Hints:
This protein is 69% helix and 2% strand. By secondary structure, the protein is an all-alpha fold. A two-stranded antiparallel sheet has the order 1-2.
Amino acid sequence: MRRLRQLAERTPAGRERYVDLLRAVAIGMVVVGHWGVTVIGRGADGRPTGHSALSDLPWAYPLTWVAQVLPVFFLVGGFANAASLTAHRGRGGNATGWLLDRSARLVPPTTVLLVVLAVGAAGAHLWGIDPAQVREVVWFATIPLWFLVPYLAVVALTPPMHALHRRFGLAVPVALTGLVALGDLGRLAGPAALATGNHLAGWLAVHQVGFAWYDAHARPTGDPGRDRARHPLPTSRRAATAMLVGGFGALLLLTTIGPYPVSMLHVPGQRLENTGPPSLALLALATAQLGLILLLREPARRWLRRPGPWQAVIAVNSVVLTVFLWHLTAALLLIGLLDAVGLLPTPAAGTAAWYAWRVPWLLLLALVLAGLVAVFGPVEARAGRRHPAGGRSTGRRPARTALVVAGYVAVLGGLLVNTVTPKSTPAPLGLPAPALVAYLAGAGLLRLLRSGWGTRG
Protein backbone atom coordinates (compact mmCIF):
# COMPACT_ATOMS: atom_id res chain seq x y z
CA MET A 1 0.00 0.00 0.00
CA ARG A 2 2.83 2.36 0.78
CA ARG A 3 4.36 1.87 -2.66
CA LEU A 4 0.99 2.38 -4.34
CA ARG A 5 0.55 5.60 -2.40
CA GLN A 6 4.00 6.78 -3.50
CA LEU A 7 3.29 5.93 -7.14
CA ALA A 8 -0.03 7.75 -6.96
CA GLU A 9 1.62 10.83 -5.48
CA ARG A 10 4.27 10.83 -8.22
CA THR A 11 1.74 10.64 -11.06
CA PRO A 12 2.48 13.45 -13.54
CA ALA A 13 -0.20 16.12 -13.64
CA GLY A 14 -0.64 15.67 -17.40
CA ARG A 15 -1.22 11.90 -17.31
CA GLU A 16 -4.56 10.79 -18.70
CA ARG A 17 -5.61 8.51 -15.83
CA TYR A 18 -8.80 7.62 -17.64
CA VAL A 19 -6.79 5.61 -20.19
CA ASP A 20 -5.35 3.46 -17.39
CA LEU A 21 -8.84 2.88 -16.00
CA LEU A 22 -10.14 1.84 -19.41
CA ARG A 23 -7.28 -0.63 -19.85
CA ALA A 24 -7.98 -2.24 -16.48
CA VAL A 25 -11.74 -2.40 -17.10
CA ALA A 26 -11.31 -3.84 -20.61
CA ILE A 27 -9.01 -6.65 -19.47
CA GLY A 28 -11.21 -7.34 -16.47
CA MET A 29 -14.26 -7.70 -18.71
CA VAL A 30 -12.40 -10.06 -21.04
CA VAL A 31 -11.43 -12.26 -18.10
CA VAL A 32 -14.89 -12.34 -16.52
CA GLY A 33 -16.48 -12.83 -19.93
CA HIS A 34 -14.33 -15.87 -20.76
CA TRP A 35 -14.99 -17.38 -17.37
CA GLY A 36 -18.70 -16.56 -17.39
CA VAL A 37 -19.56 -18.27 -20.70
CA THR A 38 -17.58 -21.44 -20.00
CA VAL A 39 -19.56 -24.68 -19.99
CA ILE A 40 -17.91 -27.75 -18.49
CA GLY A 41 -19.04 -31.19 -19.61
CA ARG A 42 -17.56 -34.65 -19.96
CA GLY A 43 -16.39 -36.48 -23.05
CA ALA A 44 -16.99 -40.11 -23.95
CA ASP A 45 -13.86 -41.05 -22.00
CA GLY A 46 -15.11 -39.27 -18.88
CA ARG A 47 -12.57 -36.45 -19.06
CA PRO A 48 -13.75 -32.86 -18.53
CA THR A 49 -14.42 -30.89 -21.69
CA GLY A 50 -15.29 -27.26 -22.20
CA HIS A 51 -16.98 -24.98 -24.70
CA SER A 52 -18.62 -21.56 -24.93
CA ALA A 53 -22.22 -21.21 -23.81
CA LEU A 54 -22.99 -18.64 -26.51
CA SER A 55 -24.04 -21.25 -29.07
CA ASP A 56 -26.71 -22.40 -26.57
CA LEU A 57 -27.85 -18.88 -25.58
CA PRO A 58 -28.84 -16.96 -28.73
CA TRP A 59 -30.83 -14.49 -26.63
CA ALA A 60 -27.49 -13.30 -25.19
CA TYR A 61 -26.04 -12.23 -28.55
CA PRO A 62 -27.00 -8.54 -28.11
CA LEU A 63 -25.22 -8.56 -24.73
CA THR A 64 -21.96 -9.19 -26.58
CA TRP A 65 -22.15 -5.57 -27.76
CA VAL A 66 -21.27 -4.69 -24.18
CA ALA A 67 -18.97 -7.64 -23.52
CA GLN A 68 -16.80 -7.15 -26.63
CA VAL A 69 -14.19 -4.69 -25.35
CA LEU A 70 -11.16 -5.54 -27.49
CA PRO A 71 -11.67 -2.33 -29.51
CA VAL A 72 -11.32 -0.40 -26.24
CA PHE A 73 -8.04 -2.18 -25.56
CA PHE A 74 -6.63 -1.25 -28.99
CA LEU A 75 -7.92 2.33 -28.70
CA VAL A 76 -6.20 2.70 -25.34
CA GLY A 77 -3.11 1.04 -26.80
CA GLY A 78 -2.99 3.62 -29.57
CA PHE A 79 -3.21 6.46 -27.06
CA ALA A 80 -0.53 4.97 -24.80
CA ASN A 81 1.81 4.07 -27.66
CA ALA A 82 1.56 7.55 -29.16
CA ALA A 83 2.25 9.08 -25.75
CA SER A 84 5.27 6.88 -25.02
CA LEU A 85 6.73 7.19 -28.53
CA THR A 86 6.38 10.98 -28.44
CA ALA A 87 8.00 11.15 -25.00
CA HIS A 88 10.78 8.78 -26.06
CA ARG A 89 11.62 10.89 -29.09
CA GLY A 90 11.45 14.01 -26.94
CA ARG A 91 14.25 12.51 -24.83
CA GLY A 92 16.35 12.00 -27.97
CA GLY A 93 15.47 8.35 -28.50
CA ASN A 94 14.64 6.63 -31.77
CA ALA A 95 12.11 4.06 -32.94
CA THR A 96 14.49 1.15 -32.33
CA GLY A 97 14.94 2.07 -28.68
CA TRP A 98 11.21 2.55 -28.27
CA LEU A 99 10.46 -0.91 -29.66
CA LEU A 100 12.93 -2.41 -27.20
CA ASP A 101 11.27 -0.56 -24.33
CA ARG A 102 7.83 -1.86 -25.31
CA SER A 103 9.13 -5.41 -25.64
CA ALA A 104 10.39 -5.21 -22.05
CA ARG A 105 6.82 -4.91 -20.79
CA LEU A 106 5.10 -7.32 -23.17
CA VAL A 107 7.53 -10.17 -23.84
CA PRO A 108 8.90 -11.33 -20.42
CA PRO A 109 5.48 -12.13 -18.87
CA THR A 110 4.53 -14.00 -22.05
CA THR A 111 7.81 -15.92 -21.98
CA VAL A 112 7.17 -17.02 -18.41
CA LEU A 113 3.74 -18.37 -19.36
CA LEU A 114 5.09 -20.33 -22.32
CA VAL A 115 8.05 -21.76 -20.41
CA VAL A 116 5.85 -22.86 -17.50
CA LEU A 117 3.37 -24.49 -19.87
CA ALA A 118 6.15 -26.23 -21.82
CA VAL A 119 7.77 -27.55 -18.64
CA GLY A 120 4.41 -28.73 -17.32
CA ALA A 121 3.62 -30.41 -20.64
CA ALA A 122 7.01 -32.15 -20.67
CA GLY A 123 6.34 -33.45 -17.17
CA ALA A 124 2.91 -34.73 -18.23
CA HIS A 125 4.48 -36.44 -21.24
CA LEU A 126 7.04 -38.17 -19.03
CA TRP A 127 4.20 -39.21 -16.76
CA GLY A 128 2.72 -41.06 -19.72
CA ILE A 129 -0.13 -38.73 -20.65
CA ASP A 130 -1.13 -38.73 -24.32
CA PRO A 131 0.62 -35.83 -26.17
CA ALA A 132 -2.66 -35.05 -27.95
CA GLN A 133 -4.34 -34.49 -24.57
CA VAL A 134 -1.41 -32.37 -23.41
CA ARG A 135 -1.67 -30.24 -26.55
CA GLU A 136 -5.39 -29.71 -26.02
CA VAL A 137 -4.85 -28.42 -22.48
CA VAL A 138 -1.99 -26.12 -23.50
CA TRP A 139 -3.98 -24.93 -26.52
CA PHE A 140 -6.76 -23.79 -24.20
CA ALA A 141 -4.31 -22.09 -21.82
CA THR A 142 -2.75 -20.14 -24.71
CA ILE A 143 -6.01 -18.75 -26.12
CA PRO A 144 -5.11 -15.30 -24.67
CA LEU A 145 -2.07 -15.29 -26.95
CA TRP A 146 -4.40 -15.22 -29.97
CA PHE A 147 -5.24 -11.64 -29.03
CA LEU A 148 -1.66 -10.76 -28.16
CA VAL A 149 -0.53 -11.53 -31.73
CA PRO A 150 -2.36 -8.59 -33.39
CA TYR A 151 -1.47 -6.29 -30.51
CA LEU A 152 2.24 -7.06 -30.79
CA ALA A 153 1.93 -6.52 -34.53
CA VAL A 154 0.42 -3.05 -34.14
CA VAL A 155 3.08 -2.20 -31.53
CA ALA A 156 5.81 -3.20 -33.98
CA LEU A 157 4.16 -1.04 -36.66
CA THR A 158 3.59 1.95 -34.38
CA PRO A 159 6.61 4.04 -35.53
CA PRO A 160 5.72 3.99 -39.25
CA MET A 161 1.97 4.18 -38.58
CA HIS A 162 2.47 7.14 -36.24
CA ALA A 163 4.46 8.85 -38.99
CA LEU A 164 1.51 8.31 -41.34
CA HIS A 165 -0.81 9.73 -38.70
CA ARG A 166 1.30 12.86 -38.35
CA ARG A 167 0.98 13.42 -42.09
CA PHE A 168 -2.55 12.28 -42.90
CA GLY A 169 -4.37 12.15 -39.55
CA LEU A 170 -7.79 10.48 -39.46
CA ALA A 171 -7.60 9.73 -43.19
CA VAL A 172 -5.47 6.71 -42.23
CA PRO A 173 -8.13 4.86 -40.16
CA VAL A 174 -10.72 5.79 -42.79
CA ALA A 175 -8.58 4.12 -45.46
CA LEU A 176 -8.02 1.10 -43.23
CA THR A 177 -11.77 0.84 -42.67
CA GLY A 178 -12.17 0.76 -46.44
CA LEU A 179 -9.75 -2.18 -46.58
CA VAL A 180 -11.81 -3.98 -43.93
CA ALA A 181 -14.95 -3.41 -46.01
CA LEU A 182 -13.21 -4.86 -49.07
CA GLY A 183 -12.12 -7.88 -47.03
CA ASP A 184 -15.68 -8.40 -45.85
CA LEU A 185 -16.96 -8.24 -49.43
CA GLY A 186 -14.37 -10.82 -50.37
CA ARG A 187 -15.36 -13.32 -47.70
CA LEU A 188 -19.06 -12.79 -48.39
CA ALA A 189 -18.57 -13.54 -52.08
CA GLY A 190 -15.82 -16.13 -51.76
CA PRO A 191 -13.59 -17.96 -49.29
CA ALA A 192 -13.05 -16.56 -45.80
CA ALA A 193 -9.32 -16.33 -46.51
CA LEU A 194 -9.99 -13.23 -48.63
CA ALA A 195 -10.49 -11.29 -45.38
CA THR A 196 -7.20 -12.40 -43.81
CA GLY A 197 -5.84 -8.86 -44.07
CA ASN A 198 -8.63 -7.66 -41.78
CA HIS A 199 -6.78 -9.22 -38.84
CA LEU A 200 -4.28 -6.38 -39.18
CA ALA A 201 -6.24 -3.61 -40.93
CA GLY A 202 -9.14 -3.72 -38.46
CA TRP A 203 -7.06 -3.41 -35.31
CA LEU A 204 -4.73 -0.88 -36.93
CA ALA A 205 -7.76 1.32 -37.70
CA VAL A 206 -8.80 1.40 -34.04
CA HIS A 207 -5.19 1.88 -32.90
CA GLN A 208 -4.80 4.88 -35.25
CA VAL A 209 -7.82 6.57 -33.67
CA GLY A 210 -5.98 6.24 -30.36
CA PHE A 211 -3.19 8.37 -31.88
CA ALA A 212 -5.72 11.09 -32.68
CA TRP A 213 -7.16 10.89 -29.17
CA TYR A 214 -3.67 11.43 -27.76
CA ASP A 215 -3.23 14.48 -30.01
CA ALA A 216 -6.45 15.91 -28.56
CA HIS A 217 -5.10 15.36 -25.03
CA ALA A 218 -1.49 16.53 -25.52
CA ARG A 219 -0.67 20.14 -24.85
CA PRO A 220 0.89 22.25 -27.65
CA THR A 221 4.69 22.01 -27.62
CA GLY A 222 5.38 25.53 -28.86
CA ASP A 223 7.20 24.07 -31.86
CA PRO A 224 5.17 25.16 -34.93
CA GLY A 225 6.42 22.23 -37.01
CA ARG A 226 5.52 19.61 -34.42
CA ASP A 227 2.19 21.22 -33.55
CA ARG A 228 1.14 21.34 -37.21
CA ALA A 229 1.69 17.56 -37.37
CA ARG A 230 -0.94 16.96 -34.69
CA HIS A 231 -4.34 15.71 -35.86
CA PRO A 232 -6.59 15.74 -32.78
CA LEU A 233 -9.74 13.70 -32.49
CA PRO A 234 -12.89 15.81 -31.99
CA THR A 235 -13.78 15.24 -28.33
CA SER A 236 -16.65 17.67 -27.70
CA ARG A 237 -19.93 16.33 -26.31
CA ARG A 238 -21.55 16.94 -29.68
CA ALA A 239 -18.86 14.94 -31.49
CA ALA A 240 -18.97 12.16 -28.88
CA THR A 241 -22.77 11.92 -29.15
CA ALA A 242 -22.50 11.75 -32.94
CA MET A 243 -20.00 8.88 -32.63
CA LEU A 244 -22.21 7.00 -30.17
CA VAL A 245 -25.44 7.42 -32.14
CA GLY A 246 -23.82 6.98 -35.56
CA GLY A 247 -21.83 3.92 -34.54
CA PHE A 248 -24.79 2.30 -32.82
CA GLY A 249 -27.09 3.07 -35.75
CA ALA A 250 -24.62 1.62 -38.24
CA LEU A 251 -24.24 -1.47 -36.08
CA LEU A 252 -28.01 -1.99 -35.99
CA LEU A 253 -28.26 -1.68 -39.76
CA LEU A 254 -25.30 -3.97 -40.43
CA THR A 255 -26.63 -6.72 -38.14
CA THR A 256 -30.32 -6.53 -39.09
CA ILE A 257 -30.58 -5.47 -42.73
CA GLY A 258 -26.95 -6.29 -43.44
CA PRO A 259 -25.21 -9.68 -43.53
CA TYR A 260 -23.35 -9.49 -40.21
CA PRO A 261 -24.18 -11.68 -37.20
CA VAL A 262 -25.50 -10.01 -34.06
CA SER A 263 -22.90 -11.60 -31.79
CA MET A 264 -19.65 -9.67 -31.44
CA LEU A 265 -17.98 -12.76 -29.95
CA HIS A 266 -17.12 -16.07 -31.59
CA VAL A 267 -20.04 -18.45 -32.01
CA PRO A 268 -19.17 -21.87 -33.48
CA GLY A 269 -20.74 -22.51 -36.87
CA GLN A 270 -21.15 -18.92 -38.03
CA ARG A 271 -19.83 -18.37 -41.54
CA LEU A 272 -19.14 -14.68 -40.95
CA GLU A 273 -17.45 -13.59 -37.74
CA ASN A 274 -17.15 -10.08 -36.38
CA THR A 275 -13.93 -10.51 -34.42
CA GLY A 276 -11.78 -13.12 -36.12
CA PRO A 277 -11.00 -11.21 -38.27
CA PRO A 278 -12.48 -7.79 -37.39
CA SER A 279 -15.47 -6.83 -39.53
CA LEU A 280 -17.09 -3.56 -40.52
CA ALA A 281 -19.71 -4.25 -37.84
CA LEU A 282 -17.01 -4.47 -35.18
CA LEU A 283 -15.61 -1.10 -36.31
CA ALA A 284 -19.12 0.36 -36.01
CA LEU A 285 -19.22 -0.97 -32.45
CA ALA A 286 -15.78 0.57 -31.83
CA THR A 287 -17.11 3.95 -32.99
CA ALA A 288 -20.06 3.73 -30.61
CA GLN A 289 -17.76 2.69 -27.76
CA LEU A 290 -15.47 5.64 -28.48
CA GLY A 291 -18.41 8.03 -28.27
CA LEU A 292 -19.49 6.57 -24.93
CA ILE A 293 -15.92 6.69 -23.62
CA LEU A 294 -15.64 10.38 -24.46
CA LEU A 295 -19.01 11.17 -22.87
CA LEU A 296 -17.95 9.48 -19.61
CA ARG A 297 -14.47 11.01 -19.58
CA GLU A 298 -15.03 14.02 -17.32
CA PRO A 299 -16.92 12.16 -14.53
CA ALA A 300 -14.27 9.43 -14.64
CA ARG A 301 -11.45 11.98 -14.45
CA ARG A 302 -13.01 13.58 -11.36
CA TRP A 303 -13.37 10.16 -9.71
CA LEU A 304 -9.75 9.24 -10.49
CA ARG A 305 -8.45 12.36 -8.75
CA ARG A 306 -9.34 10.61 -5.49
CA PRO A 307 -6.40 8.65 -4.01
CA GLY A 308 -8.25 5.38 -3.43
CA PRO A 309 -9.59 4.77 -6.94
CA TRP A 310 -6.35 5.88 -8.57
CA GLN A 311 -4.24 3.58 -6.36
CA ALA A 312 -6.54 0.68 -7.29
CA VAL A 313 -6.09 1.45 -11.00
CA ILE A 314 -2.30 1.58 -10.54
CA ALA A 315 -2.36 -1.78 -8.75
CA VAL A 316 -4.36 -3.49 -11.49
CA ASN A 317 -2.30 -2.00 -14.31
CA SER A 318 0.95 -3.16 -12.72
CA VAL A 319 -0.12 -6.79 -13.34
CA VAL A 320 -2.81 -6.39 -16.00
CA LEU A 321 -0.97 -8.46 -18.62
CA THR A 322 -0.32 -11.23 -16.08
CA VAL A 323 -4.04 -11.32 -15.26
CA PHE A 324 -4.89 -11.60 -18.95
CA LEU A 325 -2.27 -14.23 -19.78
CA TRP A 326 -3.03 -16.56 -16.87
CA HIS A 327 -6.82 -16.35 -16.52
CA LEU A 328 -7.54 -19.47 -18.58
CA THR A 329 -4.73 -21.39 -16.89
CA ALA A 330 -6.54 -20.58 -13.65
CA ALA A 331 -9.68 -22.17 -15.10
CA LEU A 332 -7.76 -25.32 -16.08
CA LEU A 333 -6.24 -25.62 -12.61
CA LEU A 334 -9.61 -25.21 -10.90
CA ILE A 335 -11.30 -27.72 -13.21
CA GLY A 336 -8.51 -30.23 -12.61
CA LEU A 337 -8.65 -29.76 -8.84
CA LEU A 338 -12.44 -30.07 -8.59
CA ASP A 339 -12.43 -33.08 -10.90
CA ALA A 340 -9.70 -34.78 -8.85
CA VAL A 341 -11.75 -34.53 -5.66
CA GLY A 342 -15.03 -35.45 -7.37
CA LEU A 343 -16.66 -32.04 -6.91
CA LEU A 344 -16.77 -30.73 -10.50
CA PRO A 345 -20.32 -29.68 -11.46
CA THR A 346 -21.21 -30.16 -15.14
CA PRO A 347 -24.64 -28.52 -15.61
CA ALA A 348 -25.84 -27.86 -19.14
CA ALA A 349 -25.69 -24.28 -20.40
CA GLY A 350 -28.81 -22.24 -19.73
CA THR A 351 -30.16 -24.45 -16.96
CA ALA A 352 -30.96 -23.14 -13.50
CA ALA A 353 -28.05 -25.14 -12.08
CA TRP A 354 -25.66 -23.57 -14.61
CA TYR A 355 -26.74 -20.04 -13.70
CA ALA A 356 -26.54 -20.83 -9.97
CA TRP A 357 -22.98 -22.14 -10.42
CA ARG A 358 -21.81 -18.86 -12.05
CA VAL A 359 -21.21 -16.96 -8.80
CA PRO A 360 -19.19 -19.61 -6.89
CA TRP A 361 -17.40 -20.48 -10.15
CA LEU A 362 -16.27 -16.90 -10.67
CA LEU A 363 -15.26 -16.47 -7.02
CA LEU A 364 -13.19 -19.66 -7.01
CA LEU A 365 -11.52 -18.68 -10.28
CA ALA A 366 -10.68 -15.26 -8.87
CA LEU A 367 -8.95 -16.94 -5.91
CA VAL A 368 -6.90 -19.23 -8.16
CA LEU A 369 -5.95 -16.36 -10.45
CA ALA A 370 -4.95 -14.24 -7.45
CA GLY A 371 -2.52 -16.98 -6.45
CA LEU A 372 -1.05 -17.12 -9.96
CA VAL A 373 -0.70 -13.33 -10.07
CA ALA A 374 1.05 -13.38 -6.70
CA VAL A 375 3.61 -15.82 -8.12
CA PHE A 376 4.08 -14.46 -11.65
CA GLY A 377 2.94 -10.85 -11.35
CA PRO A 378 6.32 -9.58 -10.08
CA VAL A 379 7.83 -10.35 -13.51
CA GLU A 380 5.52 -7.79 -15.12
CA ALA A 381 5.75 -5.36 -12.22
CA ARG A 382 9.56 -5.33 -12.44
CA ALA A 383 9.37 -4.75 -16.18
CA GLY A 384 7.04 -1.81 -15.60
CA ARG A 385 9.47 -0.23 -13.13
CA ARG A 386 12.54 -0.83 -15.30
CA HIS A 387 14.25 2.30 -16.59
CA PRO A 388 13.67 2.65 -20.35
CA ALA A 389 16.38 0.86 -22.29
CA GLY A 390 16.20 3.11 -25.32
CA GLY A 391 17.59 6.21 -23.64
CA ARG A 392 19.09 8.70 -26.01
CA SER A 393 19.76 7.76 -29.57
CA THR A 394 23.29 6.64 -30.23
CA GLY A 395 22.91 7.38 -33.93
CA ARG A 396 21.69 5.28 -36.80
CA ARG A 397 22.59 1.61 -36.40
CA PRO A 398 20.91 -0.30 -39.22
CA ALA A 399 22.25 -3.63 -37.97
CA ARG A 400 20.77 -3.08 -34.50
CA THR A 401 17.44 -2.02 -35.99
CA ALA A 402 17.43 -5.15 -38.15
CA LEU A 403 18.06 -7.29 -35.06
CA VAL A 404 15.18 -5.68 -33.19
CA VAL A 405 12.87 -6.28 -36.15
CA ALA A 406 14.10 -9.87 -36.37
CA GLY A 407 13.35 -10.35 -32.68
CA TYR A 408 9.80 -9.08 -33.08
CA VAL A 409 9.25 -11.20 -36.20
CA ALA A 410 10.46 -14.34 -34.41
CA VAL A 411 8.26 -13.67 -31.38
CA LEU A 412 5.22 -12.94 -33.54
CA GLY A 413 5.94 -15.90 -35.81
CA GLY A 414 6.17 -18.28 -32.87
CA LEU A 415 2.90 -17.07 -31.38
CA LEU A 416 1.18 -17.17 -34.76
CA VAL A 417 2.28 -20.75 -35.50
CA ASN A 418 0.90 -21.84 -32.12
CA THR A 419 -2.37 -20.04 -32.87
CA VAL A 420 -2.96 -21.69 -36.24
CA THR A 421 -1.84 -25.18 -35.17
CA PRO A 422 -4.94 -27.30 -34.41
CA LYS A 423 -5.51 -28.33 -30.81
CA SER A 424 -5.64 -31.97 -31.91
CA THR A 425 -2.01 -31.94 -33.11
CA PRO A 426 0.12 -33.99 -30.68
CA ALA A 427 2.92 -31.97 -29.08
CA PRO A 428 5.08 -33.39 -26.27
CA LEU A 429 5.77 -29.84 -25.03
CA GLY A 430 2.18 -28.74 -25.55
CA LEU A 431 3.35 -26.20 -28.13
CA PRO A 432 4.53 -26.85 -31.69
CA ALA A 433 8.32 -27.20 -31.47
CA PRO A 434 9.00 -24.68 -34.29
CA ALA A 435 6.74 -22.15 -32.58
CA LEU A 436 8.46 -22.53 -29.22
CA VAL A 437 11.96 -22.35 -30.71
CA ALA A 438 11.14 -19.28 -32.81
CA TYR A 439 9.50 -17.49 -29.91
CA LEU A 440 12.30 -18.18 -27.42
CA ALA A 441 14.94 -17.17 -29.98
CA GLY A 442 13.16 -13.87 -30.60
CA ALA A 443 12.56 -13.20 -26.91
CA GLY A 444 16.19 -14.02 -26.11
CA LEU A 445 17.45 -11.71 -28.85
CA LEU A 446 15.31 -8.82 -27.61
CA ARG A 447 16.53 -9.45 -24.05
CA LEU A 448 20.16 -9.30 -25.22
CA LEU A 449 19.52 -6.07 -27.09
CA ARG A 450 17.82 -4.49 -24.08
CA SER A 451 20.87 -5.34 -21.98
CA GLY A 452 23.02 -3.22 -24.31
CA TRP A 453 24.40 -5.97 -26.51
CA GLY A 454 25.14 -4.66 -29.98
CA THR A 455 25.49 -1.00 -28.99
CA ARG A 456 29.26 -0.97 -29.28
CA GLY A 457 31.32 -0.96 -32.40
